[in-house]
Structure formats: C-alpha cells, structure tokens
Amino acid sequence: MNRRDFAIGAAALLGHSLLPRASRADVPTAYNWQAFPPLDNKDQYIAWMVANRGEDPVYLAQRWDRYEHMIGHRDLFTDRDKRAFLMTPREEFCLKQNLPRAYERDFLDIGFGVTISGPNLVGRMTSSIDVQYGEKVLEVGTGSGYQSAYLANLTDKVWSIEIIKPLAERTRSTYDALIKRGYSEYAAITTKNADGYYGWEEAGPFDKIIVTCGIDHIPPPLLRQLKSGGIMVIPIGPPGAQHVLKVVKKKGVLGGERIVRSDIYRGSVVPFVPFTKLEGDEIVGTHNQ
Ligand SMILES: C[S@@+](CC[C@H](N)C(=O)[O-])C[C@H]1O[C@@H](n2cnc3c(N)ncnc32)[C@H](O)[C@@H]1O
What we know:
binds S-adenosylmethionine
C-alpha cells in the first residue's frame, strides 16, 4: 500500500472526510511522556498517530512532509524536539479558511491583524531554548496557541501571555475544547490577557522564555524573570526586520551575571508582528524605544 492509499484507507476507516478540516476525534490513548511516535518512517508515524491520537491521516501526512523539510533545514535539534513537532496538531490552531495551508512554511493570518508563525520558525526557535521536562517556560504572544501547545510536549509548565483580549479568550477556548477531547498535555498551559512586556512576575522566574513578537530591545522585566543559566529567544530589531536572538543569562566568574547573545539565523532578517503596548484597556503603539 502506498502512502496515499494508506491515508485514504485510514481516513475511510475512521469515517473522516478527506476535505481539509481540523480533525475532531477524541484522543483514544492517555498522554504518555515516554511515548514517541516513529520518527523515521512516514507510514508507521501515521498509523501510530491514528491509533494513539485519533488524528486525521491527511493532516498527519502533511505534518510528516513538513517535518522532513524541517529536518533538512536543521530546525529540529533533538529527538524530543522532533517528537514535539510531530505530536502537535497545527491544524487545530489555524483559521478554517487556512486549513489547506496549515503545514506550509509561511506564517498565516489568525485574525486581529496578527499571525501564526511558520512551522520551521517555531521549530528553530523552540529547539534553540532546549526545553527540558519540568522546566518553567514563558511565552510572550500566545496568538493562535500553537507555540504553547508545542511547548506542552516538552515540559509540563507553560505560561503564555496575549495582549489582544478577544484573541486570548478565543485561544483559551481552543485549549479548553482540546483538553476536553483528551489533549490532556494542554492542561499544562496557563494563559492570561496582559501586556507581556512586564512578564509574569508571580509565576517566575523562568528557565526559558520565548517571545513571538518583534521589539528593538530586550524588555528588562523579561531578563529579570529569566533564571540564572536560563535562555530566552526573542526577535530584536526595527519594525518588520528583526534578528532572532538567543539570549543566555550566564553566571560571571566574579559572581555577577553576563548576557551572551547569538543570532539563530546567522544574520538573516525575519519579520515579526510588533510587540505592542497596553495603556489601560487600549493597545497603543509599541514598546520600541
Ligand atoms: C506572531 S504572533 C503569534 C504567534 C503565536 N506564538 C502562535 O503560536 O500563534 C505574535 C503575538 O504576539 C502578540 N503580542 C504583541 N505584543 C504583545 C505584548 N505586548 N504582550 C503580549 N502579546 C503580544 C500579538 O498579539 C500576537 O498574537
């Protein structure tokens, strides 16, 4: 049986339509941190995911193809990073009209003038912060919820902040609906609607921080809330032309701390939506200096 026949057969078996849409089946097997889907065979991966996660083979095939592309581009560093990508149903976080494009490389519109970042970028940024199980991770810019869902396959402690209230509420309902369907790993994600420039003081300090909107400096509160030895990934630069920086807070020899920065794309410019600013209940401009 070739891959396409397998997909059609498995879809028919599950009563799934082959029309692009997010899968709606419940997850048949309890989440298991030790369980890995096959990482080196497409048909076996799809069969494992259908059996254990109840997902649509059509999207699984697209996820696999994007995965192979990401491996080729060195966006996924470890087997845990590979697992996190392969376990996260991106189609659940895309707008209906964009479902046929869910696994394309580009960012996609998610409404409210903002976007879900492309899968390669999410993979490279997340791999760069090397999240270990049990670590506390803060995301600034919840957006569609995809990034934090991906993080919830790496650790059981994720906090995420979104500045646009109706988007924060929509994404919270997406998580709640998915948790009800058996995606119990998303119970690890705590969300709030706020201005992420100030971080999340009560929940910190964090082992890792991932910022998904672009700014011209590192917000001092985020740096303060990063643990010593912690890693932040953040798009830094002028509007629409950021460099994605990995920022490591290292212990200095004399007991102080020093900040070591590197560009995860070695100089390539990556445009991000702006890191906006909340004044009262209104979003007014950005935090750029
Ligand atoms: C590239 S988009 C979202 C990507 C998101 N991580 C995902 O997986 O869909 C960046 C998000 O950052 C949000 N954002 C911008 N400024 C913010 C701020 N000051 N605090 C929190 N979120 C902010 C935007 O509203 C937008 O949803």
